[in-house]
């Protein structure tokens, strides 16, 4: 719900979605959460008179006046609460689902272009456009809150050799889904979304032969790669309004609770919950990426291994599995019927019986008619295991676009 307020009524915790009246011809480039009184004063000085706020995205509780005594403060602040959001996607019909996937695919393509420009600007030693990154992070949040299944599917589709760009976007998407699942406030979700985009940005300034290496790195090269943490932190500090959570995640997402991480070998009590979440997301997406020196690993196996990893917070890993599913949207699975299928929607009541699209016969090694199967209703078939597209020489991104977006 949108509400128009005067600049005098603006308060910390409100989410500004637009400027409705100002002195002069002020152009506002982005929307966002009001996180401190200084931002309000800045808007007043710029001549803002009236704003549109999004009540649903605000961490501010709005109350309407019930008596004349309240008329002088129509938007009295009662308390700031953490809003619990239902993480599981709601069932939608196939045509609506195709439309959602198509929109998510378009957003992901545009996001890759925006983030590629961001990295290119960094490499050239120029000041990057932080406003575009702010806008992108908000679009990711809106898409996840609208239909998390559609956007999370793109995380599984490793299509290009631009690892840094896709990894940054995937980290941002997965952290948003994770934060949404855990019921964080809107401002924390925003910070974690931005943290995902920025936490490895320092890699853009390292030699390409290291970043894109298809061989396991030497100890010396690994040491150089690890400098990206400090570089990323220095880059993020240049932006005036980067939240403490973002800086914390950048500095600590490679630390591990058992002290085996870097750069400072911190242990559990020294690492924030946010940085521990980022560590899980970062490791998961990296392991999904096929690299010649270690082979491909499917999502199910990665998640199972992470649940046993003593360097990670097991409770948080289990919550991450609940947030994305043991068979994440977009993952390739082998069915009892001898078909391969892609997971397209979860069944909230039973995560092991999602809705899938079968399209390939394992026996004949050939594409088949695309069939949508709700495994909860069709009890004669079931998932045997997750598999990797490389095992069957399947171009999963092409199938996704042909079958699920109609493009």
- What is the number of helical segments per DSSP (H or I, 4+ residues)? 13
Unreliably modeled segments: 25-29, 64-89
User: How confident is the prediction overall: mean pLDDT?
Assistant: 83
Number of strands: 9
Order of helices and strands: EEEHEHHHHHHHHHHHEEEEEH
CATH class of the largest domain: Mainly Alpha
Spatial ordering of strands, largest sheet: 8-7-6-5-9
Determine the structural class based on helices, strands and strand pairing: alpha+beta
Roughly how much helix do the residues carry, as a percent range? Answer: 40-55%
Terminal Cα span: 33 Å
Provide the β-strand percentage band.
5-15%
Question: Helices and strands in order, then pairings?
Answer:
Elements: E1 2-6, E2 15-22, E3 32-33, H1 37-45, E4 48-54, H2 94-123, H3 130-155, H4 163-181, H5 186-198, H6 208-211, H7 219-225, H8 228-237, H9 244-252, H10 273-288, H11 299-307, H12 314-324, E5 332-335, E6 339-345, E7 355-361, E8 366-374, E9 383-387, H13 396-405
Antiparallel strand pairs: 1-4, 2-3, 2-4, 5-6, 5-9, 6-7, 7-8
């Amino acid at each position: 719900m949108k509400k128009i307020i005067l600049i005098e009524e603006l308060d910390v915790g409100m989410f500004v979605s637009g400027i409705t009246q100002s002195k002069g011809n002020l152009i506002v480039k982005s929307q966002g959460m009001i996180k401190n009184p200084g931002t309000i004063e800045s808007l007043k000085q710029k001549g803002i008179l009236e704003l549109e706020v999004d009540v649903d995205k605000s961490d501010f509780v709005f109350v309407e006046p019930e008596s004349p005594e309240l008329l002088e403060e129509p938007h009295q602040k009662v308390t700031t609460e953490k809003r619990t959001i239902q993480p599981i996607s709601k069932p939608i019909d196939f045509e609506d689902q195709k439309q959602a996937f198509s929109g998510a695919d378009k957003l992901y393509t545009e996001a890759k272009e925006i983030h590629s420009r961001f990295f290119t600007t960094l490499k050239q030693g120029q000041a990057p456009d932080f406003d575009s990154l702010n806008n992108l992070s908000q679009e990711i949040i809106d898409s996840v809150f609208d239909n998390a299944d559609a956007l999370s599917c793109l995380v599984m589709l490793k299509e290009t050799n631009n690892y840094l760009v896709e990894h940054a976007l995937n980290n941002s998407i997965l952290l948003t889904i994770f934060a949404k699942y855990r019921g964080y406030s809107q401002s924390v979700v925003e910070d974690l979304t931005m943290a995902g985009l920025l936490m490895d940005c320092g890699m853009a300034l390292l030699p390409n032969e290291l970043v894109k290496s298809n061989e396991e790195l030497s100890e010396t090269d690994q040491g150089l790669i690890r400098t990206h943490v400090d570089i990323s932190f220095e880059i993020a500090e240049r932006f005036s309004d980067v939240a403490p959570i973002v800086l914390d995640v950048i500095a600590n997402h490679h630390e591990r609770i058992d002290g085996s991480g870097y750069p400072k070998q911190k242990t559990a009590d020294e690492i924030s919950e946010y940085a521990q979440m980022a560590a899980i997301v970062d490791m998961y997406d990296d392991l999904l990426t096929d690299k010649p020196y270690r082979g491909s690993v499917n999502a199910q196996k990665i998640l199972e291994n992470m649940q046993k990893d003593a360097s990670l917070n097991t409770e948080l890993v289990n919550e991450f599995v609940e947030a994305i599913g043991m068979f994440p949207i977009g993952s390739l699975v082998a069915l009892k019927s001898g078909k391969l299928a892609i997971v397209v929607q979860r069944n909230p009541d039973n995560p092991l019986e999602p809705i899938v699209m079968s399209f390939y016969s394992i026996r004949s090694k050939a594409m088949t008619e695309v069939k949508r199967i709700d495994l909860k209703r069709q009890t004669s078939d079931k998932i045997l295991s997750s598999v990797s597209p490389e095992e069957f020489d399947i171009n999963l991104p092409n199938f996704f676009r042909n079958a699920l977006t109609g493009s």
